[in-house]
């Protein structure tokens, strides 16, 4: 009889203890992922289909960069296709590089269908915050409400990503032993050009992890968006670098350690089913706490409250937040203005200690 009462939910369970300590991030991550796995698969498929054009552009950038490299380094009259098809190993390596660049530059995301990425990011952020969401409705709503800024960001990111691919091709060409261009560039120039390109590329890729979470969380100008992303990239440079390496390894592992054509098939299948959603969930689970710490919970950054008044919780703050389309200024809005303004003259101290943030003016908290 007790069994039937439990099955029919006739007995009250012990419930959740009030004030119970929050689980550690590792266990909380896997708990959320397990609860949202089917929704994540649905969102993954939606985003994969919506992102086919940016994926094609990423693939085109890779093909163009490889063609440019072989053109600058080749001493024979063979075409790129003839060189690649000359051996199965070269063809497979070329294909693996194509898939890696396409997936990596789409997940970070350098190439993205901006408005669709914003809608996708809002849903993933809701998963991270354990907030309810309606997948199709929220995806379409946030895609429309964030379209303006997301389109601008996606065009800038795509253009810069294309330049990086071309620059990489050129730098590799001038540093390849025996290449025709090597003799025109001294060793010190090759070294510094390679170092500068690596540093700028790493900075750019780290900034990409913060761009879309900020778009769907705050009301920012395009200038503030990139300033904030750059400052967050510097403030948390070591863990940011670790997350970037994790993304590279996670995409490269199946391509490297699975033999033959199966590596390509398995990788494409995984990312078609859940890979993009999972990697975006990992990145957002990492980046959102940084946004919360430096831009939402930072009471010093908001001058609209009397001195000494504690910052309200994020849940309470959300009650006063108007939708992006309403044009209503809330009574209190968590800070979202440029982090450069927030940090002011204390930027060096913040970079060293991750604390003591000041702001000259507040921003608006958007939540989509």
Describe it.
It contains 16 helices and 2 strands. The longest helix has 36 residues, at 261-296. Mean pLDDT is 80; it is low at 302-307, 312-337 and 355-365. A two-stranded antiparallel sheet has the order 1-2. α4 packs across α6 and α7 packs across α13. It has one domain (26-299). It has helices at 2-7, 25-35, 37-50, 52-73, 80-84, 88-107, 114-129, 135-145, 147-175, 187-215, 222-235, 237-257, 261-296, 314-319, 339-343, 347-353; strands spanning 218-219, 364-365. The protein is mostly helical.
What are its keywords?
mainly alpha; two-stranded antiparallel ribbon; 2 strands
Q: Going across the major beta sheet, what is the strand order? A: 1-2
Shape: globular
Q: Give the oligomeric state.
A: single chain
Distance from first to last alpha carbon: 49 Å
Mean pLDDT: 80
- Give a count of the beta strands, DSSP E runs of length 2 or more: 2
Beta-sheet strand percentage?
under 5%
- Using only CA atoms, what is the Rg? 24 Å
Number of helices: 16
User: By helix and strand content, what is the structural category?
Assistant: mainly alpha
Overall helicity: 55-70%
Residue windows where pLDDT falls under 50 for at least 5 positions:
302-307, 312-337, 355-365
Number of domains: 1
Give helix and strand order, one letter per element, not per position: HHHHHHHHHHEHHHHHHE
Main β sheet profile:
2 strands, antiparallel
What can be said about this structure in brief?
The protein is mainly α.
